[in-house]
Amino acid sequence: MEMEMEKLKELLNKCNTQYEFIKLCDLEQEKNM
Question: What angle is formed at CA 10 by the lines to CA 3 and CA 8, rounded to 5 degrees?
């Protein structure tokens, strides 16, 4: 069960990072328009 939790945390971290990245990209694009 421990392993599952670790994997879940890792996945969540990846999702959060990607989400932040996408937000940043959106901001950059708005500035360029």
Answer: 55
User: What would the 3-class secondary structure string for 1-33 be?
Assistant: CHHHHHHHHHHHHHHHHHHHHHHHHHHHHHHHC
Question: Which tokens sit at 27?
Answer: 């901001």
Residues 8-30, mean pLDDT to the nearest whole number? 87
User: Measured between alpha carbons, how far is 18 from 10 in angstroms, rounded to an integer?
Assistant: 12
- Nearest of 16, 22, 10 to residue 2 by alpha carbon: 10
User: pTM here?
Assistant: 0.51
